[in-house]
């Protein structure tokens, strides 16, 4: 299947989409079965005649608005979140423009349906409820066939963004084997919904390296490899082959690592982040959003980042990712790495991490270890006692231990901190460390609270959801548009600063610490611009090596507002574009499905 933008003079390097007509060589049932080009009842009479659709559609021509209203009404025939998720998935594989229009128009209501928490239930039931495949399946049993498996998705300039997972650490529900492809599809969809990438230019891929989930292996309907998860050298060699194949076939694509396991996430990121433009959302995205909320909260309460004491409860991939982002942000604002580490304290299942715990702690955890000699006589497994000694400015939960921030713990923090910053980030909702209502009540409504799942306002206090979708789409969009060689810590720090600047709480402390989802287009565009501005400073922008329409080199605007306008002009929006019937064409942009 191919299509070509009719504005041939505009190079791929400088725009993701165009607003003009699209040349299309499909017709009849083929066209109706193409999720990218299907308009359903919105095909004009002229298009129906040109594409042999007249007898395949009822006579009335609907607008996209009318279709979206009908779809929204149909959605509410379903009573459970999972049934609504199924409806949205069905729409996505039938008509992508309509799907994104529907979700964008009702983003606050539908994001929990098409992403967390409902997506977790859909992933658990992936094999038993399988209908139509989405994404690319890369099998460790077929390492020499990786490029063959990627070939259906196009050639070198057809893909801008790749979301990939080994499915070991899915959404707080752990190892989900081949079903993890759905989290990749969901995150790729968020790149379109929130980041404005063309839905035909994103790729979702799962690494099927086996599973340690006994229920899946024993499930006769399970669709993945039925052997224990492969580790060590064989795993590393397979990932190397995958990354090499991805880069060779799609050299301009940004690679987004998603929900890798605790033991693989950080090594994989560190191994490839200097070689390719890649990004781990669980480590860097989660850290960026938490850091932005923290920066906003410090601004609201007139405190300095350099004075903050931070307690991280749960030192897995997410907790360490947040710790690293706080460290990187402190360093980018003048602190030494050693100073930053001294202000961050991490707790895992063995208690506060101390420098005599090498036998039970990873190297990444040990970099945040407190001195054991400073904690003599203190029960470091008791959160209240740890809080009493540290007197944290900020307490962040990434433990998936529901209720871990007890009344005693929160009140102890409040004794030493008149405006405590409390972020229970574990999701889904049932796993959060403290309910926002309790955190506020126990601090006389003086706490600044952000969560990892959506919660309603509490007595006029908006509870911001620290959802990664307010950060990673903008970071990814900026890296894609600039054709970045790599994504540096300072580029992410620039995104954090821009996100914090947009905090509504700076104007009114009762408002959320993060921008409202209703303004996600503006949020992502501004973050992307900040990323591009920093990338230009660091000399990692490749797009300026490509030809512009005038025959010279592409020039990215150096002024923030002009660059912001340029970024917005690149963002795909869910709108129907006119189709022009052609015979088979040699396309500038080729999409094969």
Helix content: 25-40%
Instruction: Give the N-terminus to C-terminus distance in angstroms.
Output: 7 Å
Structural class: alpha/beta
Tell me the name of the CATH homologous superfamily of the largest domain. NAD(P)-binding Rossmann-like Domain
Instruction: Write out the strand line-up for the largest beta sheet, numbering strands in chain order.
Output: 10-9-8-11-12-13-14
Give the helix tally. Answer: 23
Mind telling me the CATH class of the largest domain? Alpha Beta
Q: Measured on Cα atoms, how large is the radius of gyration?
A: 24 Å
The best one-word shape is globular
CATH fold-level label of the largest domain: Rossmann fold
Report the sheet with the most strands, covering strand number, pairing sense and barrel closure. Answer: 7 strands, mixed
Spans where pLDDT lies below 50 across 5 or more residues? 1-17, 587-593
Beta strand count: 15
What integer is the average pLDDT?
Answer: 92
